[in-house]
């Protein structure tokens, strides 16, 4: 069973609200850097970037982060092949910057932990904040999002699926029951 939680308009509103919150908490755009976590976080970060540019007239640095090498499940013996790494570089300077990591869904916190490890290998930001479209709960690590589009309480046998038009042909957030 699949239930649509958000359509394209609701996603747009949430990203606009997150953008305003980022600008407000940062007291403007000075020293601000957005870094999208591949894959869908990159598209969401680009949208936030474009809204900041439209609202503030500032082109804040925008980077992409591939966390594949930093995931703690990478050392699982059942993995038969090495992951494909597109690039380890984020493409922007993060030293002494206020970095906002952007992802689609926060769940256990392990993706954000891996992203922070990857960031720290690239430089020393002044601060790291986390922006997510959906927080579904069930943390395994003491990590939280600073900017949240929507909290969606879920069970372990459900999945939150974020679709973005750039990759999936539509914008939506859906809650899906996993097969038992």
Explained architecture:
The protein is 29% helix and 28% strand. Helix 1 (8-26) crosses helix 2. It starts with a strand and ends with a strand. It has 4 helices and 8 strands. By secondary structure, the chain is α/β, with parallel strands linked by helices. Strand 2 (32-37), helix 2 (40-56) and strand 3 (62-65) form a beta-alpha-beta unit. The strands form 2 sheets. It has a 5-stranded parallel sheet. Strands 1-8-7 form a 3-stranded antiparallel sheet. Residues 82-86 have low confidence and may be disordered.
Rg value: 16 Å
Principal-axes shape call: globular
Number of helices: 4
Q: Which structural class matches the secondary elements?
A: alpha/beta
Q: Helix fraction?
A: 25-40%
Q: H/E order of the elements?
A: EHEHEEHEEEHE
Please give the structural blueprint.
Elements: E1 2-6, H1 8-26, E2 32-37, H2 40-56, E3 62-65, E4 98-106, H3 110-122, E5 127-135, E6 147-151, E7 158-163, H4 165-168, E8 172-177
Parallel strand pairs: 2-3, 2-4, 4-5, 5-6
Antiparallel strand pairs: 1-8, 7-8
Helix pairs in contact: 1-2
Quick gist of this model?
The protein has helices at 8-26, 40-56, 110-122, 165-168; strands at 2-6, 32-37, 62-65, 98-106, 127-135, 147-151, 158-163, 172-177.
For this entry, give a set of tags.
180 residues, alpha/beta, 5-stranded parallel beta sheet, 3-stranded antiparallel beta sheet, 8 strands, 29% helix, 28% strand, globular
């Amino acid at each position: 069973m699949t239930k649509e939680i958000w359509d394209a308009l609701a996603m747009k509103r949430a990203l606009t609200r997150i953008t305003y919150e980022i600008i407000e908490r940062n007291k403007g755009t000075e020293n601000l850097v957005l870094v999208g976590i591949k894959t869908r976080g990159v598209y969401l970060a680009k949208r936030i970037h474009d809204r900041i540019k439209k609202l503030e007239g500032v082109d804040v640095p925008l980077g992409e982060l591939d966390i594949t090498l930093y995931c703690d499940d990478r050392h699982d013996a059942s993995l038969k092949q090495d992951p494909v790494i597109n690039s380890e570089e984020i493409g922007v300077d993060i030293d002494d910057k206020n970095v906002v990591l952007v992802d689609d869904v926060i769940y256990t916190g392990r993706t954000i932990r891996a992203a922070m490890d990857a960031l720290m290998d690239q430089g020393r930001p002044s601060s790291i904040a986390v922006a997510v479209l959906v927080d579904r709960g069930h943390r395994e690590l003491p990590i939280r999002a600073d900017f949240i589009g929507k909290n969606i309480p879920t069970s372990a046998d459900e999945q939150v699926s974020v679709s973005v038009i750039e990759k999936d042909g539509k914008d939506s957030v859906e809650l899906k029951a996993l097969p038992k």
